[in-house]
Amino acid sequence: MPTVAFLGLGAIGAPMARHLAAQPLGLRVWNRTSSRAAAFAAAHGAVHAMTPADAARGADVVITCFPVSGDVESLLDGPDGLLTGLGAGSVLVDCTSGDPATSTRIAARLAAQQVGFLDCPVSGGVVGAEAGTLTIMVGGDAALLERVRPVLEVFGKKIVHCGAIGAGDAVKAVNNALLALHLWSTAEGLMTLQRAGVAPAVALDVINTSSGRSNASMNLFPERVLTRAFPRTFRLALLDKDVGIAAQVAREQRVPAPLLQLTAEFFTAARSALGEEADHVEVVRFIEQLAGTEISA
Ligand code: NDP
After folding, report:
1. What's the 12 CA to ligand 1 centre distance in angstroms?
2. 68 alpha carbon to ligand 1 midpoint, in Å?
3. Is the minimum distance from the CB of 134 to ligand 1 under 6 angstroms?
4. Do 174 and 159 lie in a common domain?
5. Same domain, yes or no, for 81 and 190?
6. pLDDT score of 61
7. How many domains, the chain?
8. Model's pTM, two decimal places?
9. Given the CA of residue 123, which atom of ligand 1 is nearest to it?
10. Are 43 and 20 in contact (CB under 8 A)?
11. Considering Cα of 231, then 235, then 240, then 241, what sign does the dihedral take?
């Protein structure tokens, strides 16, 4: 097995890295807030790297998982930057849900140094990361994917080569735009039915065996909205970012996509209203405020 470094021990990065730490990969970890990396290293027997360069030095595969592609790009340069540590022949696997344009720029910078790049966003949420069953959508060279596949299989169950660099980012963004649409439209539908005298639980019972069902209706609304639990697993700010990427890709590809554009606008408004730490399902609270109705069990 190759040696691996992991940078970005956030909500989803930390459980992914935990699976890697359990394998003989000589795992090195770096995190912007150093105390999180120190605690992770102590708990899971990894090496705590003090800089991105230090993490990447000697690693065959360097995995990054930050909020946006711009965060990866901002860590490339300088004496402590990734480009200082990455050796020729190594591969940067970016598990950020990123944007194709920035991934393409990063890949070009790395290629000049004989370093490979794959955009590898993941889906399956924190639960999938903890179980090691994430879906990984990959953009970039197929042969490079085969080289790093054993490492990806440590935390991923389904690994799909989607196309050239940026294709993984694009698929992830569109998937999450569909999640956003389902959240929004299901909230509107349930509020409408509640006002019309149908309990949301009864409505979901029907919808979830009918053609209007989705992951939002089958899991998120029963477990998080009807219970009013709203656990924080995936920030609304990140979903807003994803929908924005999908809308941007549609514009770049000259695809008329009014629903994607509208969803992007709407989620940006919800993010402004609810703040950077709100969970993505809390967008329902924003919709409830507009309607003056709370979806109750
Ligand atoms: P979090 O906000 O929980 O964690 C972000 C991580 O990135 C933290 O380690 C943070 O460090 C670090 N970070 C943030 N900004 C910078 C920066 N400018 N420079 C260096 N490090 C930085 O995010 P998630 O883990 O939830 O998400 C990470 C990526 O995975 C996102 O692209 C997201 O869209 C995607 N994703 C998330 C899922 C989820 O369920 N959470 C599901 C699928 C994909 P620090 O500790 O210092 O704050």
Report:
1. 7
2. 8
3. no
4. no
5. no
6. 98
7. 2
8. 0.96
9. 43
10. no
11. negative
